[in-house]
Input
Amino acid sequence: MIFVVYYSFTNELGNFTFSNFFDVGNYSRVFLRSIYLSILSTFVSLIIGFPTAYGISKLSPKVQRLFISALILQMWVSFLLTTYSLMTMMESNGIISKILTFFARNEISIMNTKSAVIIGSVYSSLPFMIMPIYSSISKINKDIIEAATDLGASKFTIFSRIILPMSKPGVVSGIMMVLSPNLSSFIFSKMLGGSENILIGEIIELKFLGSLYDPWTGSSLALVLVIFIFLFNSILISYDAKSKL
Amino acid sequence: MDDCIISLRDINVKFGDEVILDNLNLNILKGQFVTLLGPSGCGKTTILRLISGFLHPNSGSIFFENKNITHLSPHKREVNTVFQRYALFPHMNVFDNVAFGLVVSKKSEKEIKDRVNYMLKLVGLSNFSDRHIDSLSGGQQQRVAVARALANHPKVLLLDEPFAALDLRLKKDMQVELKKIQMQTGITFVFVTHDQEEALSMSDIVVVLDKGKIQQIGTPKDIYNEPSNAFVADFIGESNIIDGIMLNDYLVKMEGKKFKCLDKGFLKGEHVDVVIRPEDIKLVPPDSAHISGVVTSVTFKGVNNEIIADIDGFKWMIQTIENKNVGDVIGIDIYPEDIHIMKKSDYSSEVGDYSSFSDEFSSEEVNER
Output
């Protein structure tokens, strides 16, 4: 981290400079695209993850354990492996493309599109979204649900007035767990997004290890990204703290 | 049966093979403070859950104001519950907790405000409406739970061991306050507890339960003075339960001696259980006494001394203000009105003397269904 800061304020000769940050401006489009895509995929995984977590919490304890261990298992599988299998599925004769083609009745390939990047990051981040939400929902005491029923609340009211607000800490930490990796990840954009959908994470990788070798600008980019992530998280944390008071 | 608000008829509840309630019949009258009293697992909480609707009986039916509500879902019943662990909504402040039922039933904003403020005043928490639940003490949370349950104007308030988690002093205060609230509102209270002292001091009617069966229904005085069997006598307060034989009406033989009593209607020579409360036993000089024995232990209890005395091999408990020492020979006398005769029951053999005395049911039992 210290090296990142050091590099971002120096040039090739080791002199102090701000010029690296001017170069960052060149990548503002990539930055915006990264932010847009990561927010979108975080939102999609929230939309899918919340009902899933709620559904799991409604199952019998035995089945719940089964689902949770399946989720943990998916967390263990390497990102790279996930990506390769997604690639195979999304290729023009892969299963996802086939299904889409079947429904749309004409040839569709989602490989190398924004959708592919989103599917990739949603798939990999779902367990990280489901787990905290599930744990906060399952922590809600049965007594509290009964008390609400006893006071005349219907199932819908219980969901909207008790379960939804009480699972907010889970939702917030789910978003935190998912948003930052999505923002900085480069695997999915590289493997699934093609050259059209290059993301900031990928640029940084190329600055250090790839064809755009320039660790000084790379460091500045990384620093800006870290600041972004820090800002996002502190907004979320302060929101979470406020809701607790 | 006009003033009967809840009627349980021929209720059977089983969890698997375990019988929880065994053909139970119970009528609860409007405006009364009824306590369901019994040890853990006697089925008292089950009765409460039947009334609130969280549990349905395997057979039998439940009537509420002469309407069959056996299968009505809980949120449609005109009863509210104060839960054992309060079950307050942790994400809301005091006001919103109390207002919950009113908001759900879509009352006007002004009505909600008025009623919540009235309820908070009733439980003595007027200045707490903006406070967060976590910042309240156990006693305060308990008050919020009572206010929340009463805000809906239920016809019956169910209370499931609400004071189990409070310390003794707070418990006593809350008992007095709850009784006051019940008198003020005139709402029927059904109160569940395993604490016999609590039951006696608060209730109009006590229902003593054990093993899924009602053992006795009566006023606290009836229950204490005229227990219907050895279980009730043993569970409510302390009692010496002695084997006896009815010689005639008003005459019982126990410990080899004849005693006058006020009971009649038993067969001649019928074996009975004789109940004598420890505080009703008078100490007299041994030579002038009807029966006598040796002191085996003395415990100082503050208001009196608790003596365990061996009388012909049977250990009696005696509460007296006199000072005796272990080994002293004492004589005892019992007045006819202090002798209570009961028919033999299944419990007669179970409840023995005080030879292995411990504070059987006075320990806290918080976790139970």
